[in-house]
């Protein structure tokens, strides 16, 4: 269990496999990879933030070394949500598309689709009970040890005025939770520098960190930056909110990459960029 940690270090990598037919005969296309999420406990609230970038690439191998050949990027995927039925905030590392087993089709849907379904659930009990209910739901749509069909991230919420944090990973069924004291934070890029103490300067620092990483890793991390604030009374607000969020199916997303990239706030990378795998 996480308890009274001033800094929670997380290392995340997420890749989503997509099959597609394109004009240049690429047969294996991937979406996703890195995401930058930050969660900070301010004196009076919890701030949760993320970028909205995804990339479009295929795997290549040169002289025995594996690379991603990035051909396009788009800033259109929400990764930070509020689950109203549980009064819990959630950040996802990367993106995922999953079949809805309750629907009689083979479409794959984004995480926003399943957040909407969770909002119709009755989720009560202690904060741990709420975290576990949400975690078990995402376990139910994931496939254990399948790198293309799992989710991981961070959940936060309040119970009787005390803030809590949960880290989870459905790939290996990892689940930890504990209190989130004032000043503590989660930074998925492992930035250990402490945040300022007042709310507005914290917001500024969150925005600055993600923008800086978007310069360092432009094919993985980028605009628009979303910042959501959770209050002890169970309310929330997006302090910064993207106007380019795309909630279509997996196939609709791929179609837009191939035929209408402006619709998903994307752009072609020409010439394509090779990014070496870091494992």
Give your account of this protein's structure.
Helix content is 18%, strand content 38%. By secondary structure, it is α+β, with helices and mostly antiparallel strands. It has a 6-stranded mixed beta sheet with strand order 1-15-4-5-16-17, covered by helices on one side. The protein has a 5-stranded antiparallel beta sheet with strand order 2-3-6-7-18, covered by helices on one side. A hairpin with a 5-residue loop joins strand 16 and strand 17. The longest helix is centred in the C-terminal third of the chain and has 18 residues, at 199-216. The radius of gyration is 18 Å and the shape is globular.
- Taking the alpha carbons of the first and last residues, their distance comes to 28 Å
What's the β-strand tally? 18
Strand count, sense and closure of the main sheet?
6 strands, mixed
User: Can you count the helices?
Assistant: 4
Strand order across the biggest sheet?
Answer: 1-15-4-5-16-17
Short key terms for the protein model shown above:
single chain; alpha+beta; disordered N terminus
Q: What's the arrangement of secondary structure elements?
A:
Blueprint: E1 7-9, E2 15-19, E3 28-32, E4 37-41, E5 46-50, E6 53-62, E7 65-75, E8 80-83, E9 88-92, E10 97-99, E11 108-110, H1 111-118, H2 127-141, E12 152-159, E13 162-169, E14 174-179, E15 185-187, H3 199-216, E16 226-230, E17 236-240, H4 250-259, E18 266-276
Parallel strand pairs: 1-15
Antiparallel strand pairs: 2-3, 3-6, 4-5, 4-15, 5-16, 6-7, 7-18, 8-9, 9-12, 10-11, 12-13, 13-14, 16-17
């Amino acid at each position: 269990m996480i308890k009274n940690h001033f800094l929670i270090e997380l290392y995340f990598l997420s890749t989503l496999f997509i099959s597609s037919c394109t004009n240049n005969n690429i047969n294996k296309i991937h979406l996703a990879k890195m995401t930058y999420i930050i969660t900070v406990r301010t004196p009076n609230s919890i701030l949760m933030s993320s970028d909205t970038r995804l990339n479009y690439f295929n795997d290549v191998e040169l002289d025995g070394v594996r690379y991603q050949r990035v051909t396009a990027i788009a800033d259109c995927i929400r990764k930070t949500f509020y689950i109203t039925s549980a009064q819990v905030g959630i950040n996802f590392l990367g993106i995922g598309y999953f079949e809805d087993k309750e629907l009689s089709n083979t479409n794959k849907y984004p995480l926003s689709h399943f957040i909407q379904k969770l909002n119709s659930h009755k989720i009560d009990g202690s904060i741990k009970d709420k975290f576990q209910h949400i975690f078990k739901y995402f376990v139910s749509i994931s496939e254990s040890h399948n790198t293309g069909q799992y989710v991981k991230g961070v959940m936060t919420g309040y119970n009787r005025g005390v803030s809590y944090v949960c880290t989870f990973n459905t790939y290996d069924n990892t689940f930890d939770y504990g209190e989130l004291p004032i000043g503590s934070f989660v930074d998925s890029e492992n930035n250990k520098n402490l945040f300022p103490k007042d709310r507005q300067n914290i917001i500024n620092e969150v925005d600055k960190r993600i923008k800086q990483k978007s310069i360092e890793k432009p094919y993985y991390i980028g605009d628009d930056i979303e910042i959501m604030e959770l209050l002890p009374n169970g309310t929330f607000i997006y302090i910064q909110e993207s106007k380019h969020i795309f909630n279509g199916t997996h196939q609709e997303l791929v179609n837009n990459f191939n035929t209408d990239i402006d619709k998903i706030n994307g752009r072609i990378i020409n010439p394509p960029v090779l990014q070496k795998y870091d494992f």
